[in-house]
Every structure is written in C-alpha cells, then in structure tokens.
Predict the structure of SH3-like domain-containing protein.
Amino acid sequence: MTATARPARRLAAAAAIVLLAPLPAPGLAPAALAQSAAPAPEAAALAPSDSPPAGEAAPRLGPETNLPLPRFVTLTVDRANLRRGPSTAHRIDWVFTRRGAPLEVIAEHGLWRRVRDQDDSTGWIHHAMLRNWRSAVVTAAPETVLRRSPDWSAAPVAKLETGVTARLDACEPHWCLVETSGVEGWAPKADIWGVRAAEVFD
C-alpha cells in the first residue's frame, strides 16, 4: 500500500499582527518601511551579516557556491517541494507554502540545497527558490512584542503571533530589528528563528 503523503507545511497560515502604536519607531531609517528591493541571486556576494562573529572560526564553504555553510536564506516562492534527495527523482516529504520563510542551507549538491527549517526538518530544494536575503519567523508562543528600541522598557509597537515571518534588517546581541506588513520594531532575538545567537549586524 502506498504511504499517505505528508500534509503541506504552512507557516503563519493563521498568524496575526496586532498594532500597539500608530507611528513607526523614532530614529529608524524611513527606507526600512519601504518595499524590499529585488533580492540578489543565491550566488551573489554575501552581506556583512553572513560573516562569522568575532572570535569564531570561519565557516566551511559550499562546494557549488563557495558560500558559507551553514547559512540562512529566504524562500521566494509560494510553493516549494522539499525532497529526500537532490533531484526530482526523489520523494517529496514536505511542501513549503509560505513565501518569505527563513531556511538554513546545510549542504549543496549541483543545483540543489539541503535546508533545515525552524522545526529542524531537513530536505533538498532547488536553489532557484532561495535568495540570500535575511528573514525570520516568530517562534515565541503565543506571541512576541515589537518595541521602538532594543530595550525592555521601550514602548511596544506591535504583537506578532507565532509563525509570522518578517524581514530581518539588523541584530544586536539580544535584539533584532524586523519589518513585516509595513510594521517595524525590535524583537527579542530569543523569540525568533533565522539568526544565530551570537550574530550581530546592521
């Protein structure tokens, strides 16, 4: 008997954003509220955020792209098959249905990339569906609170429910600046997935 296929994986299908403040955080760059520019191809030069933090050993490089492994990328299509091996001949285990979701590339083979998601599921996906821009997904339950500045005493801007995805613009040791649906603010780094604990960039 043929095994029943796994259901499509949906990120943030029912997640919500609740505004807590009518204005953007003061001092933040206006460009951060604008639409994202077209993402660079996967093989493009990496941003400074992809460099290893000070004191850490340089990452190994992928045999196909010469880019660091592991590294975070973003899914840029509405539907992507996650396969057991690096070709269309391999079985589909999952179907990603959330454009903008962060994934971590952990291996390369030809035009295929082995990726890991926030639930630690892994599989192979075609490189054309990925781009080297940064995003994050809220993993805190039931929500995380965005603040006007990277400080617990800062005024709240919005609440993002578990599963909401956002563009990742900058990170400090304990906070990251994110933007989603025109709402921008600082989220506790521990509440999101798509950035390493020691990663700092702007």
Summary: Residues 1-5, 10-14, 22-41, 43-49 have pLDDT under 50 and may be disordered. DSSP finds no helices and 17 strands in the chain. The first strand starts at residue 17 and ends at 19. The domain at 62-133 is CATH 2.30.30.40 (SH3 type barrels.).
